[in-house]
Structure formats: structure tokens, C-alpha cells
Amino acid sequence: MAMAVTTLFPKISPLVHKTCFRNFIASVSFATFAPAVSADKPRHKWRQPVVSLVEIGGVKIDKNDVVRDDPTNNVPDTIFSKLGMQLHRRDKHPIGILKNAIYSYFDNNYQNKFDKFDDLCPIVSVKQNFDDVLVPADHVSRSYNDTYYIDSQTILRCHTSAHQAELLRKGHTHFLVTGDVYRRDSIDATHYPVFHQMEGVRVFEPNDWEGSGMDSTSYAAADLKKCLEGLACHLFGAVEMRWVDTYFPFTNPSFELEIYFQEKWLEVLGCGVTEQEILKRSGKVNNVAWAFGLGLERLAMVLFEIPDIRLFWSADERFTSQFSSGQLGVKFKSFSKYPPCYKDMSFWINDSFTENNLCEVVRGIAGDLVEEVQLIDNFTNKKGMTSHCYRIAYRSMERSLTDDEINDFQWRVREQVETKLKVVLR
Ligand code: PHE
Q: How confident is the model at residue 175 (pLDDT cuts 50, 70, 90)?
């Protein structure tokens, strides 16, 4: 697992200094698996057809331009099939409902001053995604292991910060960017290789902070925290949350906001005071700004009590029919809990082995029917060979899987880890 969870960049010195909005989570129960909502309705197909041409923000994207058999390309079909789905633009989908609720918070508190973008193309240059926001040349997030590359200079954005510099350059001073972002990652209930983020940026003028008795950076940091605490309150009413000091290449100081969920602290957003260099390059020399990037799935899981991130992609009516436009926080009722099936697999790894590559193989075969890939044993023998044992949990959110189906997946996984990852099965 090379990459941090919602946010891209590793923590330096986690320092908890604030807790508020207690007691929300205590009342949340994930054990309630209520009877099927409409058990006799026809089930939807669990695989979505792969269309070969999509249009995003007026740009036509052909599958052959995104998925290519070329060493500079690591985009699988399953990822291409997510392009253009834009869950955040569906008003009756939890992600769209949440986006709209955040938009209303900003409209109401800032007199419609924030410009909104939710149709910017997710295919961006390496420069936009990394260089423009000062990500160092050797940063792990640039690796083929962590990011989907279309070619050596073009990627699927891994954060909405990819649009910051350009919008600042165009003169926007208050803006929100919502979009689908893509990351190669491990597999579990809160990680999926495509998710949605919202970026917020606010630029201040000298007369904003002059007279406050604060220096410009402290002023922006205080305003940022006030804004996001207000947002958390607007969304959750009361929830246990804390600020953690962290590091991002594009902000200083930088913070993360964590929310207590399912007995764990969950990162839901990263933020900070924008590096002066970014403002300077976009022609703003007498300003200070703040920026944040929040993970919409993480927040929606808490708000709607959605226990598994794969559900957001479900076309099953028993999922989709539970949400309506403008209704934030309707509690999701599981249609029923289908049993998981576990399969273990051990192999000797090689130097190039990574868990992300393994997860990519498993998803390529089982798609959304894989729930978790977990390292359960790891040892090195006297000859220096390292063995890993992974436990794969297969489970559908929508139906029971058959033994044949699972055995078939597992055989194909075993075959492909040998041929594609060149590991030696034990
Ligand atoms: N882009 C960061 C991430 O995805 C989040 C972030 C946005 C942090 C803006 C600070 C400012 O991890």
C-alpha cells in the first residue's frame, strides 16, 4: 500500500488538537440489515456494458485513446468504463445529493461567490496534476504503481487539485471543483480506484486580513478551519471530528480533518494555506489563499450509512431507489447481506511485486465482486525469499455468488498473478 487513503500525501507529524461535534456516530448502527426493499423486482445486471466512446465536458473520448497495449499505459478496461459516469452530477445519487448540499452551504454563506465546476475532463497532463501544484519530481504519487497513466505525459487525475492552477490563472478567486479522481490502490470497504473529490479555493486580498491583527497566513488558516467546521456542522449536525497537522506539497501549513466512523478515524479532507509559489505563478503576488480537497464517498458513507464503497456504483434499483434529490442523510437499508467467500493464496514475491498490482489483477477478473484483498501472512526464509499470503474476500452486494463462479475467479487470479506479476505460487 504505497499511497495514503483519501489524501495523497503522507502525514509528517500527526497532532490532534481539536475534537468537537461529539455523539453522532454513537447512534449509527451498521448491523441493521433490514429485509429486502423490493425483493421481487427484477435484478439488474451486475456488470455494466463497456461503451467505447464517452463525452465529458464537450470532449469526446475514445476507448482506444485511453486503454492501449503500451508500456506507458496502465489503464484497464474496468477503469475506462467509469469515465463519463459522473456520479456527482446525478441529483438522486448520494454523491450528487452531497455535492448539492455542499454547494448550498457555500451559496448561503458566501452569497453565491463561489464559481462551480463539475464537468472538467478527468484526463489531465502530468504538469497539471503534479508540477503545477509543486509535487516533487520523485514523489511516490507520480509512480505507475499509484497513478493511471494514459501515456508518459497524460494521466487520469488523481486529485481535483489538478485544476487549481489553471483556474487561478484564469482569474477565479472563489471556486469549487467536483470530479471523479483515479488512484491505483488496495481493496477494502472504503477504497475504490475511482472516487469523487471536491476542491475548494478562496483567495484573499490585503484588505481582508489587514486590521484583523493577524498575519496573512494565520488569517487564512483560521478562516479555512472556520469554513470547514461550519460545513461539517451543516452536513452532520454533530459528529466527532479532529484536526490533524499534515503535509501537502501545495499548502503550508496543512491539515486533515478526520471523522470518527465505524470505530475508526477516517480522513475526509485535506486542506491548508496555498503555497505562495502557486499564487505567484498565476499572477497573484499580494494575496493569500486557502484550499481544501474532500472525499465525497467517505462523507457520504458516514451520512447515508453506506457500509461499502462499491455500492455507489450499483445500478441495482434496491440501492438507487432509496435516495432522492435534496434528501441528505437518508439512512441506507441493506437489501440483505449476502455471504462473503474467502480464498487464500500464497506465493514467493519478487522485487517488483506490489499490492496495488495484485489488486489490479483481482479487480480485472472479479470486478466489483471482490470486497477485500488482505495480506494475512508475510515471512522471509533463510535464503532471503519472501512469501506473502493474501486472503481474497469475494462478495456481491446484490446476490449470492455460486461456488463455480468463485472457483473460476480464483483460478484465473492464480494464473494471472503467475503470468502478469511473475510470482511463484506455493
Ligand atoms: N489534493 C489533496 C489530496 O487529494 C487534498 C488537498 C486539496 C489538500 C487541497 C490540500 C489542499 O490528497
A: very high
Side-chain half-sphere CA neighbours of 298 within 13 A: 22
- Name the residue with the closest Cα to ligand 1, atom 9: 292
Do you know the residue count of the chain? 426
Other Cβ atoms within 10 Å of 385 Cβ, number: 12
Mean pLDDT computed over 339-364: 97
Which grid coordinates belong to 265?
Answer: 478515524
pLDDT at 240 over 90: no
Atom of ligand 1 lying closest to residue 269 CA: 5
**182 residue type, one letter:** Y
pLDDT for the residue numbered 9: 61
Ligand 1 atom nearest residue 8's Cα = 12
Give the separation between CA 426 and CA 346, rounded to whole angstroms. Answer: 6
Q: To the nearest whole percent, how much of the chain has pLDDT over 90?
A: 80
Other Cβ atoms closer than 10 A to 379: 9
**Alpha-carbon distance 123 to 54, whole Å?**
12
Q: If you measure from the C-alpha of residue 292 to the centroid of ligand 1, how many angstroms do you get, rounded to a whole number?
A: 6
Ligand 1 atom closest to 197 (CA): 4
* Beta pairing, strands 149-151 & 154-156: antiparallel
